[in-house]
């Protein structure tokens, strides 16, 4: 290969093991050990869930710290990422599953208030375009907590504010929109959303995602009824009904609240994030793009980061390989997704716990393999 190759590293996180930036660092280190003159550009990515904030920061956004309520009300130190008047907010880091104290689920009482508090801080600071990554949520409250944090009052039949959580929505009698943060009415909201679930029913927020958040069958039924109550009251207040819209059931119904009251646009998470970090501008001139995530499996084919990266890179005429912890896709499936080859930690180390605990040295070895096989 004539001239120094240029490699664009655009992995997602290895969930529960290593942040996307760490994956890129390790793979880059391995490639450089074989080809010292290689140009390596690291551009970690995310799909709207946990890691979204880190991806924005790695792309040059500024970190703005803020302390908010976690999913069960405890203070959480989080941040939003800012560039100019654009703010990137990650629900997972503010009030998602990873923030549950002791990893104990709270299906009826967990709240999206922390998300709303981060949004409020960004609005107060003058941001007028807000990108909301809502993956990894811990709550099924229809976005009620987020709305309350933005000044919307959700009241019972005696005019009292409802307590936190989706379960309390069963007592919702009215919604007072007069206190909605004035900047929220003028700001542009874009939500990273990879699901098309409606708010209610067998494909809705409670039925599909409630069990993942600890809800029993009875609690799922109660939450679905409570969300229906929310949809009825909001429809009455607005004169428009958003419960059946694709994505309304995302993040326990945060999608519904964003659509109905923030006039949000929902976009596939990886496409939104790739635009945000300027991925397309980095692809031209690259010899190879390396992407990846913890598990390359059937779910990867439905809107996950590696396939989104591959689609953009292949469209620009640049070949793609992937790194992962575990590979469950065959060569033909990978090629159909635009990925020429995939390298797994388990190919080098059969012990799963070691792969999870110490991924960086293994990723560096994969980087060496990629350099030998694709760049030499």
From TrEMBL:
Transmembrane segments: none annotated. One of its GO terms (molecular function) is glycerate kinase activity. Keywords: Kinase, Transferase. Belongs to the glycerate kinase type-1 family. This is Glycerate kinase. The lineage of its organism: Bacteria, Bacillati, Actinomycetota, Actinomycetes, Propionibacteriales. One of its GO terms (biological process) is organic acid phosphorylation. Pfam families: Gly_kinase. InterPro entries: Glyc_kinase_flavodox-like_fold (IPR018193), Glycerate_kinase (IPR004381), Glycerate_kinase_RE-like (IPR018197), Glycerate_kinase_sf (IPR036129). The keyword rRNA processing does not apply. It comes from Nocardioides euryhalodurans. Gene3D superfamilies: Glycerate kinase, domain 1, Glycerate kinase, domain 2.
């Amino acid at each position: 290969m004539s001239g120094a190759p240029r490699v664009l590293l655009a992995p997602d996180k290895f969930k529960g093991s290593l942040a996307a930036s760490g994956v890129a660092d390790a793979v880059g280190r391995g490639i450089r050990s074989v080809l010292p003159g290689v140009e390596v550009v690291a551009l970690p990515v995310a799909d709207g869930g946990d890691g979204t904030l880190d991806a924005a920061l790695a792309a040059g956004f500024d970190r703005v710290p803020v302390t908010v309520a976690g999913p069960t009300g405890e203070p959480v130190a989080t941040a939003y990422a800012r560039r100019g008047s654009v703010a990137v907010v990650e629900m997972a880091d503010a009030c998602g599953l990873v923030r549950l104290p002791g990893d104990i689920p709270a299906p009826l009482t967990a709240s999206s208030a922390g998300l709303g508090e981060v949004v409020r801080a960004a609005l107060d600071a003058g941001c007028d375009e807000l990108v909301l990554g809502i993956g990894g949520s811990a709550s099924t409250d229809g976005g009620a907590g987020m709305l309350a944090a933005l000044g919307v009052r959700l009241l019972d039949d005696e005019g009292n504010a409802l307590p936190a959580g989706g379960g309390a929505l069963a007592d919702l009698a009215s919604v007072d929109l007069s206190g909605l943060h004035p900047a929220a009415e003028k700001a542009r909201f874009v939500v990273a959303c990879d699901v098309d679930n409606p708010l209610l029913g067998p494909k809705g927020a409670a039925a599909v995602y409630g069990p993942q958040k600890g809800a029993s069958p009875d609690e799922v039924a109660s939450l679905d009824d409570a969300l229906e109550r929310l949809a009825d009251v909001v429809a009455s207040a607005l004169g428009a009904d958003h419960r059946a819209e694709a994505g309304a059931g995302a993040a326990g119904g945060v999608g519904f609240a964003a659509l109905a009251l923030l006039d949000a646009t929902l976009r596939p998470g990886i496409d939104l994030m790739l635009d945000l970090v300027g991925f397309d501008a980095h692809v031209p001139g690259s010899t190879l793009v390396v992407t990846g995530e913890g598990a390359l499996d059937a779910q990867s084919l439905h809107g996950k980061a590696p396939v989104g990266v591959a689609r953009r890179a292949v469209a620009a005429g640049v070949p793609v390989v992937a790194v992962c912890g575990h590979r469950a896709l065959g060569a033909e499936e990978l090629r159909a997704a635009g990925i020429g080859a995939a390298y797994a930690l388990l190919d080098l180390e059969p012990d799963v716990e070691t792969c999870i605990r110490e991924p960086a040295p293994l990723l560096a070895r994969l980087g060496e393999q990629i350099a030998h096989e694709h760049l030499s």
